[in-house]
Amino acid sequence: MDGIIVVNKPSGCTSHDIVSKIRKSLKLKKVGHTGTLDPLATGVLPILLGNATKLSKYLINHDKEYVATIKLGVKTDTGDIEGSIIDEQKVPLFTEEQIIEALNSFVGKQKQMPPMYSAIKVNGKKLYEYARNGEKIEVATRDIEIYNISFLQYIDNKIKFKVSCSKGTYIRSLCEDIAQKLNTVGTMENLERTQVRNI
Questions:
Q1: Which of 17, 38, 87, 177 does the annotation list as catalytic?
Q2: Is 38 a catalytic site residue?
């Protein structure tokens, strides 16, 4: 069997878990995905079957669209709500206009610092492995682009927004940067990938 299926990934499982389940269900050896979603995240996860796995190097480079929620006033070691709290701050009063201005300031090409709890490899070792061992390591910024970012909601110190971005963009890092722009701290509470372009 060859082809591409799009899975609406639930929260609480890894992208690899989904691949394993499909591999067993369809009794296929060649099954892969085109862009990892963290266990917390939900949404669009393209799965490649059989000879379609050869398309991975092309599809993995496509742009993505997400809906995310930032919880302001809390910073964690992982950049999302599942991590350990490392900082807490009182959240200033914001108007929607101030939040929209902060969001819009991220549109365009920029450098982004990836989170330490990520699968990026440095010297043959994944960053999260260094982080779990408490090891310090220098991490290079990455070139990304935010094409569009839209304010959706602000309730109980939580900002919900939609963002279209280039490959390699870490929404956890973007959430932290948005909070910093607002002179506070924040962590990603929810993430849904709503689109992978051109699939």
A1: 38
A2: yes
